[in-house]
Write a structure and sequence with these properties.
globular, alpha/beta, 14 helices, binds pyridoxal-5'-phosphate, 17% strand, seven-stranded mixed sheet, single chain, 401 residues, four-stranded mixed sheet
Amino acid sequence: MQVSRETFNDVMAPNYNPAAIVPVRGQGSRVWDQKGDEYIDFAGGIAVNVLGHCHPELVKALHEQGEKLWHLSNVFTNEPALRLATKLTDATFADKVYFANSGAEANEAALKLARRFALDHYGEDKNQIISFKQGFHGRTFFTVTVGGQAAYSDGFGPKPGAIDHAGYNDLESLEAIISDKTCAVMMEPLQGEGGIISPTEEFVKGVRALCDKHNALLIFDEVQSGVGRTGELYAYMGLGVTPDILTTAKALGGGFPIGAMLTTNKIADSLKVGTHGSTYGGNPLACAVAEKALDIVNTPEVLNDVKRKEQLFRDGLDAINQKYKVFSEVRGKGLLLGCALNQDYQGRARDFLVASTSEKLMCLVAGANVVRFAPSLVIPDEDIKEGLARFERAVAAVVNG
Ligand SMILES: *Cc1c(COP(=O)(O)O)cnc(C)c1O
């Protein structure tokens, strides 16, 4: 059966607008489309393909588990889930893990747990959730309402209540709305979709202190920043601030759908039998792949190399900017980098993405003013060089009209 990009318009719901090419195969940081054209992948499936495409160890883990056991439901537990949960708790502050299938689901669980924990310990008045403008937490109705762009949650009828937003890196605005009625503050320890914004040390430590003062749980949404992306296993480890609940997804499965919520014994106690659940959450296939991905990422070799590769990107992007003067800054951490467009190119991030695709480079945007890169953490240096050469041609094409 022949299918093409045109088929999309015929049979797919129009909520996405995919690129003109249809990729069919990937290996490492290279991807091939239906015509056989080869692309370099600086997008990593939006910070998902943490070990590139078809990493042989992940393929092996998938095959091996695929011939053993795919699915059981949570009426039974399974070995890959138990091993993965053990490794996640060993590697982080957390004592307990709840598995989901996506970032939004992990966040949904975190928010429900925060509400239930507050009810159990402080009573029903403590239910306010505070998050930050430009933050992104997923597309379920609860998570998208907690997200910091009302446009994404408008138009679907009455929204979940008791959700307020403060300004990111604006401690005073949080201080003005937080109180003993606040049950949780949810934040990304590096805003991704919102434009690759790092928190200042003063801000993130201040958020922690305000949460402590008002007995509110601090939830770090590490769906994008987690699993090695910043050069730490989780971004919180580089910030000197420990959350009460952490959510992780995207890179966790290296491309296989999985999400997880991590927390302490005391908080997890509120997630009693029957309070929450998922048919597929923690299924053996996803957990087997994620276990292998975590084994590989959580090594000094891979994590330290993220910092070195970040420098390669920064040096290359600085050189391009010297020549073409398009960015006001290159920001972010590790291999989650954003090129913020300067005054002359406001609103034109998508033009750079389209020009990059024409030069056979896959990249991302984060809003209208930031070009984003989230490549594989093990992208070969020569692919970084070649990708940056293609990006330079794309920049030149935009600059020269
Ligand atoms: C992508 C993302 C989500 C949503 O994850 P899904 O798997 O698409 O549900 C939530 N939070 C952050 C920070 C993200 O980047």
